[in-house]
Structures are given as C-alpha cells and as structure tokens.
Write a structure and sequence with these properties.
By secondary structure, the chain is of the alpha/beta class. Helix content is 37%, strand content 11%. It has a six-stranded parallel sheet. The radius of gyration is 20 Å and the shape is globular.
Length: 243
C-alpha cells in the first residue's frame, strides 16, 4: 500500500526520519570515514526542498557535534573545524556540542581556538555542552613529559570559558572522563570553576562514577549554591543607574 509521506502526522514523520538519519554513536566529528556512516544517509536531503527542511532538522538536532576536530588528518593550521564549515541554517538547529580535551596536550592543535569563524552565537538552540576529558597532564604521572604542570590546565580553562561565553542559550555543562582522570585534580577543578562562574549547571556523564556517590552530589549542590549566592550578591550591589 502506497501513501504520501507528508500526509503522515509530523511526529511520525520525525520518527521515520530519525530511524533513517540518526547515527550511533551520536557524536559527529570531522572524520575521513564520514562518507561511510553519514554521507550516504544525507542523500535523503536531495529528495525535495520540503523533505530537506524536515530532514536536516532531525539530523542536526539529533546528534552532538564536536567543536574542535580530533582526527589527525584535520589538525593542520588551515583546517577549519566542522562548525565553521556548516551554513547558518544547520548550525541554528544543533542542540548539543562536545568539547574533547586531551589531544595535543603538550602542543594543542592549531585550529583549536575560539573565534568568529565558529559562529557559536548562531548555535542558539544549544542547551548542553559535553566536555570529555581524556587525560590530566597535571597528574604526577606526566612529570618529565609535560611542558609544565599548569600549561594544559590553563589552555583548557581558557578554551572552555570562551566557548561558554559565546553560546547564547547554554544551560548545562556535562563533564565526563576516562577512569584515569582524577575528579579532584587541577584540570577538572579549573574546568568546574569556569562552569560555576559562567552561571551554568554542572552535571556528570556516564563514563565515570563521579556523580553517583553522596559526596559527589553534595559537592555539586555546594557549587550550585555558591553560584546562586554570587548572583544574589551581584544583584545587591547593582546601582540604580545600572538597572
């Protein structure tokens, strides 16, 4: 039995398109093998203008997009991050971004800096920023191999600060890491500070056990209370001319 696709309810159309377009794992990065996973699926964009409009919304809102590429083929000085390659209409549909920290910990990749080329301000629907930490070079295990103890911590802190500052609708920052990363280490502590001072909600991902203990939950509550108090104090000190 045949039927016209657009005669179906919008919810059912979205579910069908999701089954066709959503890739597992759901994080999209610049990768030479994208043609095997993503490119063939995107042929559906070519059916018609109306089909394209519904399909790209499902694809770009249904995946997490990595802000800075991690594959070695795309780490040259002139290589543009994936976000910089997307048109505005695609960027404006994205709801989740990922910042992966670890590659190039002694010599960060040349394209890894926040600027207007990323057009993060156009990602107005992004509510969640996922931060995945591969390693923490401030650990004693890296002594003798790193430039110094604070280099990568400061680099990562500034990078996260700049990303948070440019995302207009960001609400939540989710931390995740490999088990070898210490939650109380210098890197995670610095990144947590950037999140709290940026007024965003901090949550933990599923890769670690950081968010499961009572102590972790109490620490998270303390960070949120600290930010709430700081916001209240700032409001108290506002002058009439500032309002």
């Amino acid at each position: 039995m045949s039927f016209r696709f657009f005669d179906l309810p919008s919810e059912l159309r979205s579910k069908i398109l999701g089954n066709c377009l959503i890739i597992d794992p759901c994080t999209i990065d610049l990768n030479p093998f994208n043609y095997r996973t993503a490119s063939s699926r995107l042929n559906i964009f070519l059916v018609s203008r109306r089909f394209h409009k519904e399909a790209y919304h499902v694809f770009y809102s249904g995946h997490t997009f990595r802000i800075f590429q991690t594959h070695g083929r795309f780490l040259g000085k002139t290589d543009q991050p994936l976000l910089a390659r997307l048109p505005t209409r695609y960027r404006s549909t994205i709801t989740s971004l990922e910042l992966r920290l670890g590659p190039g910990w002694n010599d960060p990749p040349k394209p890894w800096f926040v600027s207007d080329r990323l057009a993060l301000e156009e990602c107005a629907r992004v509510r969640t920023l996922k931060v995945f930490i591969e390693i923490d070079p401030s650990s004693a295990a890296f002594k003798g191999f790193r430039l110094n103890r604070v280099f990568f911590t400061n680099f990562s802190g500034h990078l996260l600060h700049d990303v948070i500052e440019r995302l207009p609708s960001l609400d939540t920052v989710e931390f995740d890491a490999y088990p070898s990363v210490d939650r109380d280490g210098a890197l995670v502590t610095r990144l947590s500070k950037e999140v709290v001072e940026g007024g965003k909600r901090l949550t933990w991902g599923s890769e670690t056990e950081w968010g499961n203990s009572l102590a972790d939950k109490l620490e998270l509550a303390r960070l949120r209370a600290k930010q709430k108090q700081a916001t209240a104090n700032e409001a108290i000190h506002l002058q009439p001319q500032d309002l």
